[in-house]
Amino acid sequence: MRALQCPDWYRTDQFLTRLSLAPSLRPDAPSSCSKTILEPEFNSGTGILMIIRKIPSEGLSHYSYFISAAGMAAVVDPRRDCEAYLELARELDVRITHIFETHRNEDYVIGSLELASRTGAAIYHGTRVSFAYGNAVKEGDTFRLGRIELRIIETPGHTFESISIVVTDREVSDLPYAVFTGDALFAGDTGRTDFFGPERRAEVSALLYESIWKKILPLGDGTLVLPAHGAGSVCGSAISDHEVTTVGYEKQTHPHLSLSQGEFIQKKVNEHHYLPPYFAKMEQMNQEGAPVLSHLPDLRPYLVDELRDIRDRSQMLDIRSPTSFAGGHIRGSLSIWKDGIPAFAGWFLSYDQPIILVDDFNCYLGEVSRHLMRLGYDNLKGYLAGGFPAYFKSGSPIGHFETWSVHDLVRERKNDDLFLLDVRDIANVKKYGMIAGAHHIYVGELPGKWGEVPMDRQVAVYCDAGFKGSLGASYLAGKGYSRLANVLGGMGAYLQAGYPVEHVQ
Ligand SMILES: [Fe+2]
Fold first, then answer.
1. Within this chain, do residues 162 and 49 fall inside the same structural domain, yes or no?
2. Reduced to 3 DSSP states, what percent helix, strand and coil does the chain have, rounded to the nearest 5?
3. 504 CA distance to ligand 1 centroid (A)?
4. Which one of 32, 145, 217, 425 has the fewest CB atoms closer than 10 angstroms to its CB?
5. Span 408-421, pLDDT tens digits
6. Are residues 340 and 436 in the same domain?
7. How far is ligand 1, taken at its centre, from the CA of residue 281, in Å?
8. Which CATH number goes with the domain that contains 389?
9. Is 266 exposed, middle or buried (0-12, 13-18, 19+ CB in 10 A)?
10. What's the mean per-residue pLDDT of the chain?
11. Residues 92 and 130 in one domain
12. Cα(505) to centroid of ligand 1, in Å?
């Protein structure tokens, strides 16, 4: 057999396995390496194998899926930067013919139109929302990719138009093999039901109960559950980190599935979720159809002098670490570390003013562009040429604030002038407790509540580890606060050091 060059993120067993899940697909991986694989399985040239691949989008904890057989493929809930699906289709010798949206999605821009523009595939989604594009499907509609049958089941609750898609390998059995559950059923969690206001929460929670208990659980214990999100997603509260699960496993272990209907509805009604302002923008873009971009944005490098001219009309997004930011930054810039962008950009950045990135050495511009593209920030325009070193070497004025260890914090607490600001998620406040005397404002809610923080006192911001604290402090610095400190290590370090906390309900 002839040795082929292939990307190193391919494992030989993916080609020897009749059906595989690949949670670690890396579209940005190097294009070649010296790994040897076996030719017949790699290059059958017919695309006849039944393949299911999971394509995760880090940060969003979003999962899309690629399923193919008989030379055709469907993509479920594609992301906007859709090269991963096109590469898979090329490598597997298949044509993407179908795109399914399990629901309108709220936390990212769905890439259906982008992928359709590159493939000609048809787009399908539920009927109970009026989309400006694509085709509506209803309960019982079926699609065939050769031996694979894809059957639509309507599973409202998270949203009214939510659908799940049942996969059956007709060549093997009439039994369902897998189900794409969207945001109805996750591993260890169920979709949030708070999008339609408190007055409708019980109603939509009851719909979700019906969807899960009457449509998904009866598919059979052996059915693979393929949800649209994994651990860390803002679309659930406590999604587990199980990469693969089944209906039977969830029935045995899922904390919601042992509840009665009344208990389930009550639990969903009482759940707390934050609602970032960008969700409304995503909802609008996903119903109207997001602009097709065809590629990642071409970023313009801005020289320091050019930046000075546009600074007041732009949003400066500093993607460096909290320690770098505290040590020196462009005044008025916002500190969001690069991995925090999917979760926090949507609380702070507007869709109107241009966004300019500031990094140390501009190593992460592509990664951050991808994150912002997925959130619909098509107003990302450029970056600081030469990075922050170019800025401080130019003699420009530099902003900075203090960083404290938890021991510094304990010492400073004796000072009556100190205002201690806790910016953690309320769930972590309840779980781990608070430092006595601290004032709590969730970091994402600072834009509406920063007036609660006195400007004439020393303010120390703490979070879980020191990253959200930097974001909070940078936001306050932009509002004119001058006596700021970020507590490095946050509550994690505070507890590690053995300092006492107050528990709150
Ligand atoms: Fe969702």
1. yes
2. 30, 20, 45
3. 30
4. 32
5. 999 999 999 999 99
6. no
7. 14
8. 3.40.250.10
9. middle
10. 90
11. yes
12. 28
pLDDT surpasses 90 at 47:
no
Task: Verify that 213 and 103 share a domain, yes or no.
Answer: yes
Expressed in angstroms and rounded, the spacing between residue 106 Cα and the centre of ligand 1 is 5
Angle at 31 between CA 30 and CA 35, to 5 degrees: 90
Q: How far is the CA of 103 from the centre of ligand 1 (A)?
A: 7
Q: What is the pLDDT of residues 191-218, one digit of tens each?
A: 999 999 999 999 999 999 999 999 999 9
Q: 243: CA distance to ligand 1 center in Å?
A: 19
Say if 182 falls within a structural domain: yes
Same domain, 67 and 203: yes
DSSP H or E stretch at residue 454: none
**In whole angstroms, how far apart are CA 199 and each of 106, 195, 321, 422?**
20, 11, 42, 30
- Distance (angstroms) between ligand 1 centre and the Cα of 244 equals 20
The domain of 389 spans: 300-393
Q: DSSP code of 432?
A: H
At residue 290, what is the residue type?
Answer: A
Tens digits of per-residue pLDDT, 249-276?
Answer: 999 999 999 999 999 999 999 999 999 9
Give the sheet arrangement for strand 148-154, strand by strand.
142-145, 148-154, 163-169, 176-182, 224-227, 245-246
Which of 348, 366, 393 is the C-terminal boundary of a domain? 393
Over residues 437-486, the pLDDT tens digits come to 999 999 999 999 999 999 999 999 999 999 999 999 999 999 999 999 99
In a domain, 289, yes or no: no
Separation of CA 148 and ligand 1 centre (Å):
26
Cα–ligand 1 centroid distance for 256 (angstroms)? 18
Give the burial string for 474-489 (b: 16+ CB within 10 Å, else e): bbbbbeebebbbbbbb
Provide the CATH number for the domain around residue 94: 3.60.15.10
Number of separate domains in the chain: 3
Question: Which position has the token pair 């990302």?
Answer: 380
Does residue 291 form part of some domain?
no
Distance from the CA of 285 to the center of ligand 1, in angstroms? Answer: 14
CA 102 to chain centre: 16
Sign of the C-alpha dihedral, residues 360, 362, 363, 364? Answer: positive
- Is 287 contained in some domain? no
Ligand 1 centroid distance, CA of 282 (Å): 10
Cα of 245 from ligand 1 centre, angstroms: 19
CB atoms within 10 A of CB 252: 11
Burial class (CB in 10 A: 0-12, 13-18, 19+), 174: exposed
On whether both 327 and 409 belong to a single domain, the answer is no
